[in-house]
Amino acid sequence: MHFADIILPLPLDGYFTYSLPPSLQKLAKVGMRVQVPFGRSKSYVGIIARLHDEKPEGYEVKDVALLMDTEPVLLDTQLRLWQWLADYYMSPIGEVYKAALPAGLKAEEGYKPRTETYIRLTAAYQNETTLHVALNMLARAPKQQEAFIAYLQLSGWDMLNGEVSEVARDELMNTSGCTLPTISLLVKRGMLETYEVEVGRLNHGGEPHFENIKPLNTVQLQAYNDILFSFLRRNVTLLHGVTSSGKTEIYIHLMKRELDEHRQVLYLLPEIALTVQMMQRLQRVFGNRLGIYHSKYSDAERVEIWQKQLSACPYDIILGARSAVFLPFQRLGLIIVDEEHETSFKQQDPMPRYHARSAAIMLASLAGKTSAEAPRVLLGTATPSLESYHNAKTGKYGLVELTTRYQDIELPEIQVVDTKDLQRRKMMHGVFSPLLLARVREALEQGQQAILFQNRRGWAPMVECRQCGWVPHCEHCDVSLTLHRNLNQLTCHYCGFTYQIPTECPACGSKQLKGRGYGTEKIEDQIREILPDARVARMDLDTTRTRHAYERLINDFSAGHTNLLIGTQMISKGLDFDRVSVVGILDADSMLNYPDFRAYEHAFMMMSQVSGRAGRKGKRGLVVLQTKNPTLPIIQQIVRNDYQALYHDQTQERLAFHYPPYYRLIYVFLKHKSDAVVDTAGLELGSRLRQWFGARVLGPDKPAVAKIKTLCIRKLVLKLENGIDMPRVRQYLRLAQQQMMQDKRYSSLQIYYDVDPL
Fold first, then answer.
1. CA nearest 460: which of 478, 482, 476, 491?
2. What is the pTM of this model?
3. Residue 485 half-sphere exposure toward CB, CA atoms < 13 A
4. What is the pLDDT of residues 60-118, one digit of tens each?
5. Rg of the chain's alpha carbons, rounded to an integer?
6. How do 3-7 and 498-499 pair as beta strands?
7. What's the first-to-final CA gap in the chain, in angstroms?
């Protein structure tokens, strides 16, 4: 093969063809990395997507400069998944490459393995006579002599045959108490020498202990067998099990079954926070057969996991967030997508805007084309997405339902508090109702724990002048600034820009500037005043910027070092705490009043999930749900945990107004620095698309946030009935975009797509 089509990490469609020098033609394979020139002076590390003998016409083909691998770093199934993601989500394949591959595998200098310094005797001192000479020489240097003897003891040096164990320099220093200069002097004397050993960064987690697997109870065993039976007929099955029904134990038994058959498992979770608890739980069972992969791990760690998965001894189980779907698997048997309803599975920015659940299902399908049997996919949740439940009810997926909690513990009691009435009677204590405070205080006094849920971080969502109503906005985005009092700044949650807190209103000069609304910071501050003896922790984006912060917060709460946890939606996602008896939902209305057709679905899921944190073991838990609209049907559905009623109401509404699961959605976004240009471009693109799609096109309109990072935004919506020819739809969209970009007015216009938006 004389030519190679290369994927480059650039936001450009298609492949780039290079010629292979004769020295590389027999060595090159699809999936290998190559270094190639690009433009006049740049070079990139690309991936070979295709080898062929078809010489391109019309331009000079450049040579591949360097072949970087002896074996492919990308398996055939992965490459086909990349191609599917690029096509389905209308993203350049170069963007898929950038999202999928760890940075260390994309860099020209490559990944640098971690090494550790080891110590050994030099050749001159590897016999009994010279050793005695060395010890005599060190008689007047007691610290050096002590370190030398400590080395001999640690290495187990055998004077008869010279056999020794390897000794790390750090191990010698820790054991003997000697210092680095002392060892350096022994090296300088020629008695010891140092050498480097590649050690890797991965935590091996101990040996597996299958005996720790708990036996399933009767209900769980029935669900387990139903899942296996469903897998005989369908590749995808939805496990709909109420919170605390023991779904994780079923997953563990399914994983054990796959490992017994010498197959691998991919276990996807929506939040990094969840991997902390699940990692500890799975390591107790599967030990060093478990690997962890997500964005909070260093790039070097991710490179090592990637390489391990390509080796002869890969991890049998990978636990990770959505990016783990990109890892190489040589014998994949099962994919578990836990909390499948979670919006965190959908990538937003940057491209590709993929959904990990859909990518996992496609990965299983593609893997099945190269193996005797396709991997199976299990979607697990207490609150299924309407699309998944619809697919299960219509027979596209299998469906297994688990309706009772583990050990028959009742679902928590949900008491609804009318905060509008309490505010009118001046009975609210800030954002806290008297009932909520009483129940939290009672729980803490009894040695239990409580969770307070508020889906807004910061001190206050906005600052307002009480005199004239002026509100500070971000100069780069069309949003008000959030007050972070602990950091003493105003922050834009869209571009991250920060501002000083003004001392007076620039509009009227008033100094009466007050924060409006409640964020988690403010709630933490107020609850500390009300309950000074409570051991309070806060879990939101501001307090969990590293993986160690996640681990510390969760472990402290699990161990009882803290007993009152305040958090945003990340605390609603499957965390398992034994002693939580009370959960407070502080403001249900902020979720219900969100301008989105999925608002009720997402609110039901979030509130049901956070409610499920209460009373998981022991007595029945209590949830205090605060709202100004207690008579809304959705509130009663949450109280009764009536998912069927929610599904019925929402699907009827969506069928009438052409929304999923009966219609497909594609959002088309246009961005430009000029509001006038993006407005004209939106109208023109909308007109072009209506020529093909007619009334299926809505807009252009300004989205809720119409300017981000100085770019003005317009949005078009395509509502496409199920069964429509999607490849042709994508073809028309790309054609319309190409026609638009030929106009010089739109040379700097950005057009991008969100397929199946959440």
1. 482
2. 0.84
3. 17
4. 899 999 999 999 999 999 999 999 999 999 999 999 999 999 988 987 675 666 678 88
5. 30
6. unpaired
7. 44
